[in-house]
Amino acid sequence: MRIRHLRGVRISNVFLVDGGPGDRFLVDTGHWSERATLVLALRRAGLWPSDLTGVLLTHRHSDHAGNARWLRERFGVRVYAHRADAEILEGREPVPHMERGEGSFLAGVLAQFENRWPARVPVDRALDDGDTIGSLEVHWVPGHTEGSVFFRHDRTRSLLSGDTLLTAIPPLVVRAGLALPYPTFTRDMKLARASIRAFHERAIDYDALLPGHGAPLMKDARKVFGEFLDKQGILDT
Ligand SMILES: [Zn+2]
């Protein structure tokens, strides 16, 4: 059992959680513009897309869910997402409009792309907080999107955090550093902060943080993030 960072995919992080046939999941899929890169990265891992058991989405944004529909239609890969994001991915709920707000000019441009080309995909199984899928636990942390989740992998003591905890500074995410979700791209910052706090206070342990953007943090991640959240005022009463 191992988790592999599919490094060729650049816009967002894609991880392969590989417990062998029948237990082989992709966590996020990258942006559609990196489709060929994603397939190449899978090939380097010795796999074809059809070898995947399923795709787990940390949330519905197009830089993470961008290839889910193609993988499902072309290779029959099952798609899993939290119930609240599934409703939007399936078009049963409208895609919430992103506003630049106090964000940077660049963030405003990226928001327009997301507004214009949101990810759409049928979801084979809607996830709920506390579910287990393969060897991963589902922890619902709404705020960045309605259905943002953490996936926790017990065997490798890893937390796959999507855009809810980052190790690169938004909106460009090229500069390293711990970060919270970026306001322009986040539905409800107050809720995101409350979700992060609630998760942290449950004292669920993990050593490695595998975020949606930025380099994986492989050691003492819970402690490092605890200190960061404290500095951000998230842990105050
Ligand atoms: Zn996002």
Describe this structure in words.
It is built from 7 helices and 13 strands. It has helices spanning 35-44, 62-65, 68-75, 83-89, 105-116, 189-201, 221-231, and strands at residues 2-5, 15-18, 24-27, 54-56, 78-82, 125-127, 132-133, 136-140, 149-153, 158-162, 166-168, 176-179, 208-211. It is globular and about 45 Å long. The N and C termini lie far apart (39 Å). The model has no long low-confidence stretch (mean pLDDT 96). Residues 59, 61, 144, 163, 185 line the site of zinc ion.
Integer count of domains: 1
Largest sheet: 6 strands, mixed
Which superfamily, in CATH terms, is the homologous superfamily? Answer: Ribonuclease Z/Hydroxyacylglutathione hydrolase-like
Low-confidence stretches: none
Computed Rg? 16 Å
Hetero groups? zinc ion
Could you say what the CATH topology is called? Metallo-beta-lactamase, Chain A
Distance, first to last CA: 39 Å
In short:
This protein has 237 residues and is of the alpha/beta class.
Write out key terms for the chains shown.
237 residues; single chain; Metallo-beta-lactamase, Chain A; 27% helix; six-stranded mixed β-sheet; binds zinc ion; alpha/beta; 7 helices; five-stranded mixed β-sheet; globular
